[in-house]
TrEMBL record, chain A:
Its main location: membrane. It is a multi-pass membrane protein. GO terms for molecular function: electron transfer activity; heme binding; metal ion binding; oxidoreductase activity, acting on diphenols and related substances as donors, oxygen as acceptor. GO terms for cellular component: cytochrome complex; plasma membrane. The chain crosses the membrane at residues 16-41, 53-73, 93-117, 129-152, 188-207, 219-239, 328-354, 366-388, 416-439. Signal peptide: none annotated. This is Cytochrome bd-I ubiquinol oxidase subunit 1 apoprotein.
From TrEMBL, chain B:
It is found in: Cell membrane. One of its GO terms (biological process) is aerobic electron transport chain. Coiled coil: none annotated. Belongs to the cytochrome ubiquinol oxidase subunit 2 family. GO terms for molecular function: electron transfer activity; metal ion binding; oxidoreductase activity, acting on diphenols and related substances as donors, oxygen as acceptor. NCBIfam families: cydB (TIGR00203). It is a multi-pass membrane protein. One of its GO terms (cellular component) is cytochrome complex. The keyword tRNA processing does not apply. The keyword Oxidoreductase does not apply. Its main location: membrane. It comes from Geodermatophilus nigrescens. This is Cytochrome bd-I ubiquinol oxidase subunit 2 apoprotein. The chain crosses the membrane at residues 6-28, 83-102, 114-133, 153-177, 198-219, 231-248, 255-276, 302-324.
């Protein structure tokens, strides 16, 4: 592996590790803010929702700090490993990054402390405002970073002068349709991660008939978020694929492993044995019409194959290999779609059980059991989704403008490898501890103290969870 | 003042705030093993920085983000040029950040001792390395004709940069001790130990900063570009440091903390002034002509205008709510009180 591969691997792995933590942070912040709002507004349900807020807030906190520290790595990495890229895009790419820090990071990291530790110091409305500021901060943060990422996929509002991209229109950068699509998709999937996290934990306790009053509430909130989140993800994801067919045709063709231009109506490959060297599929099971439906929402229409697009790219950008690792993109896409569909079906099945008869949701044990097992699935879908979008645009870093190999720093492979080993060791430890603590705390539930606790924020007395004196302070 | 100059100084301000804020929380973590004798004392010390360290740390992300957007070439050269140092800082910050959380996960003395070391080492390493980086900034890196930095790990450590590292390390320890004087109840043993520590490390910090300034002026000739007025800053840094000793002996804790803060301010300004007066952001040790100039490494005008609006709106807002955060958690900490049940 040379410097480019090592640096790519480092960026990919640290980003995926980082996103493991932050996708939960982004989604869960909103769920908790909603729970606390209900506790604040509805006096009759204050106790139940107060407990739920305290319990899930505690889990949120465990995960939060790790997201922050891994975020520093992200911010430094562009300069450390991709200084040529930084030179090229700094005029443009740095702005959303700086906006993310100034508008979101400070807000989140300050108000999370005020919300949790300020329980007995702040008035209830201030506490409520604090958690909302955290929730809003996480969404703003997601927006700017995704906007920056989307610019790399679909650069707009710039011109290249003396080997540097120069900003010509910031409005175009902000209203980049790709950015809003990506944001909707990332946002939706973060909600899905958090919703199934809450669903799984609630189901775990409902199966054991512990604190059913609290967990049947959180189950319902989770279900609503899961339904909204999955619909959001599916719709935006479908649109994203269609948009990619237009502005990143190679990515779309790789997602479908379509080597030659398709027939019309285009079939859709369910499984395929891909031979990248021979530039063909040795074997494939295809479903008729579905390809056209995916690409055009229509029963007819053809789309270009990888080989044809390769020729177009050669003509446009100069002779090179513009074919991404097809099998990776193809399979990642299928895993993501399969999980997404399963989660969508689960969310709506849950809504159906809820609607059909009173208490039906809390007593359908096979459904609850499935929810517990589904906790990791949204993370896998996220992970594979990023693989599709980032591997599908190889070898470009800034689409059509800068390749990955051109963007890398002048570091030695030894330096990068040493750093990579260190980062991996720490990240694996972090993820292990995060999962361990989350599961220990989640299992313990409300009435037992978890066997391991946060020193910074030990399990609170969930019974009042900071809502004592609510009436007095209001 | 044009926008390039404005942003150069806003980045200086961001780094200053970072060193000022994270300086004391690093300091507290570094001093903890020598100050705390019992578990309750350990937690009380952590409690003094508990609600703040995370918000403080964001200032370094801000510094990097602002540098990226306003001086992309400088950002790329510094962060890739001192790659190994930044890797070490990142690893240290990662381990230290989670040590707050994970220290008490397992009820075992060895486990706690491990995370205490992580929190100690995770604060010593960046405290030292930021000094090295600041010293290397003014001393310069082997920047070649293509504005790329050559040379490896060994090139980072020169006598001057090592003294720079020791200076920030000691300064942060002093600053941390002064911060403790404001955050601990005055009738506790810990408070008295913190005072002793402030005096001891303050004396050493004075020696270090004198060595740093003398080396900068005499042996390295790095501050030659200063006219008469900019001399004021290093001199002020030294004077404020000397005042701390006076303040400590007269039990004027707030004054002592203000003074160690001002020392950090003046020291950081001195570093940035040494760059500014030469018109360079990263001098080259290979050939003076290869150094990165202030103008060439800055972003285009449009980006700077945009960033000025953004910074003008959000920086005061952030500083405002962070101050409020400190106000909410202003209550002094006592080792025995609730530390074991209420977190931190």
């Amino acid at each position: 592996m040379d410097v480019v591969d090592l640096s790519r691997f480092q960026f990919a792995s640290t980003s995926i590790f980082h996103f493991f933590f932050v996708s939960l942070t982004v989604g869960l912040a909103f769920l908790i803010a909603v729970m606390e709002t209900i506790a604040y507004v509805r006096k009759d349900r204050r106790e139940v929702y107060g407990k739920a807020t305290g319990f899930f807030g505690h889990l949120f906190l465990i995960n939060f700090a790790v997201g922050v520290v891994t975020g520093i790595v992200q911010e430094f990495q562009f300069g450390m490993n991709w200084s040529e890229y930084s030179d090229f895009v700094g005029n443009i790419f740095g702005v959303p990054l700086a906006l993310e820090v100034l508008m979101a990071f400070f807000l989140e990291s300050t108000f999370i402390g005020l919300w949790w530790f300020g329980k007995d110091r702040l008035k209830p409305w201030m506490r409520l405002a604090s958690i909302w500021l955290v929730a809003i901060g996480t969404q703003i943060s997601a927006f700017w970073i995704v906007l920056a990422n989307a610019w790399m996929h679909h650069p707009v509002g710039y011109e290249v002068v003396d080997g540097q991209a120069r900003l010509t229109d910031f409005g175009a950068v902000v209203f980049n349709y790709k950015a809003w699509l990506y944001f909707a998709h990332v946002q939706g999937s973060a909600w899905v991660v958090a919703a199934f996290f809450v669903l799984g934990i609630s189901a775990f306790h409902l199966l054991r008939r512990q604190d059913t009053d609290v967990y049947s509430r959180s189950l319902r909130i989770g279900l609503v978020f899961a339904a909204v989140g999955t619909v959001f993800s599916v719709v935006s994801g479908h649109t994203e694929a269609q948009v990619a067919r237009e502005d990143q045709p190679m990515k779309f063709a790789a997602m479908e492993a379509q080597w030659e231009t398709s027939e019309s109506p285009a079939p859709w490959s369910l499984v395929a044995l891909i031979d990248q060297d021979a530039r063909e599929n040795r074997w494939s099971i295809e479903i008729p019409y579905v390809g056209s439906i995916l690409a055009y929402n229509s029963l007819e229409g053809r789309y270009d194959g990888i080989n044809q697009i390769e020729e177009q790219y050669d003509a446009a950008y100069g002779e090179d290999d513009y074919t991404p690792p097809v099998a990776w993109v193809y399979w990642s896409f299928r895993i993501m779609v399969a999980i997404g569909s399963l989660l969508l079906a689960t969310a709506f099945l849950g809504l159906f059980l809820w609607w059909r008869r009173k208490g039906g949701l809390d007593t359908t044990r096979w459904f609850l059991r499935a929810l517990v097992w589904f906790i990791p699935l949204p993370w896998i879908a996220n992970f594979t989704g990023w693989m599709v979008t980032e591997m599908g645009r190889q070898p470009f870093m800034v689409y059509g403008e800068l390749t990955v190999a051109e963007g890398v720093s002048a570091n030695t492979a030894g330096e990068v490898l040493a750093g990579l080993v260190g980062l991996w060791a720490v990240y694996l430890a972090l993820i292990g501890l995060d999962i361990y603590l989350l599961s220990v705390t989640a299992r313990a539930g409300i009435h037992r103290k978890p066997e391991a606790q946060l020193v910074a924020a030990p399990a609170p007395d969930y019974e009042d969870a900071g809502f004592q004196g609510y009436e007095r302070r209001n | 003042m044009d926008l390039v100059t404005l942003w150069f100084w806003l980045i200086a301000l961001t780094f200053t705030l970072y060193f000022f804020l994270e300086g004391f929380d690093f300091g507290v973590d570094i001093l903890r093993p020598t100050l705390a004798r019992t578990e309750a004392e350990e937690r009380a010390l952590t409690g003094t920085i508990g609600p703040f360290w995370d918000g403080n740390e964001v200032w370094v992300i801000a510094a990097a983000g602002l540098m990226f957007s306003t001086f992309p070439v400088w950002y790329g050269a510094v962060f890739s040029g001192m790659y190994p140092l930044f890797v070490l800082i990142l690893l240290a910050l990662l381990l230290r950040g989670v040590s707050f959380e994970y220290r008490n996960q397992v009820d075992s003395a060895r486990w706690r001792a491990f995370w205490d070391w992580m929190s100690f080492g995770g604060s010593v390493v960046p405290s030292f390395l930021w000094g090295v980086i600041m010293a290397k900034l003014i001393e310069g890196l082997p920047v070649n004709a293509e504005s790329r930095v050559e040379g490896g790990f060994a090139a980072m450590f020169t006598p001057f940069s090592l003294v720079g590292g020791v200076t920030t390390l000691l300064l942060f320890m002093l600053h941390g001790a002064n911060f403790l004087l404001l955050r601990l109840h005055t009738d506790t043993v810990l408070y008295n130990r913190a005072r002793t520590a402030a005096l001891r490390w303050g004396a050493l910090a004075t020696v270090a900063i004198v060595a740093f300034v003398v080396m900068g002026y005499v042996t390295e000739g790095l501050f030659e570009s200063f006219g008469v007025v900019p001399w004021v800053f290093p001199v002020l840094a030294f004077l404020t440091l000397a005042t701390i000793w006076l303040a400590l002996s007269r039990r004027r804790d707030t004054l002592a903390f203000t003074m160690s803060g001002l020392t950090i301010l003046f020291a950081t300004v001195t570093v940035f002034l040494a760059l500014f007066t030469r018109g360079e952001v990263l001098p080259s040790t290979l050939d003076p002509a290869y150094g990165l100039t202030l103008r060439e490494s800055a972003s285009q005008h449009y980006t700077l205008v945009l960033m000025t609006w953004v910074g003008g709106i959000f920086l005061p807002l952030i500083i405002g709510y962070q101050i409020w955060n400190y106000y909410v958690f202003r209550e002094r900490v006592r080792p025995d009180e609730g530390a074991l049940t209420h977190g931190y």
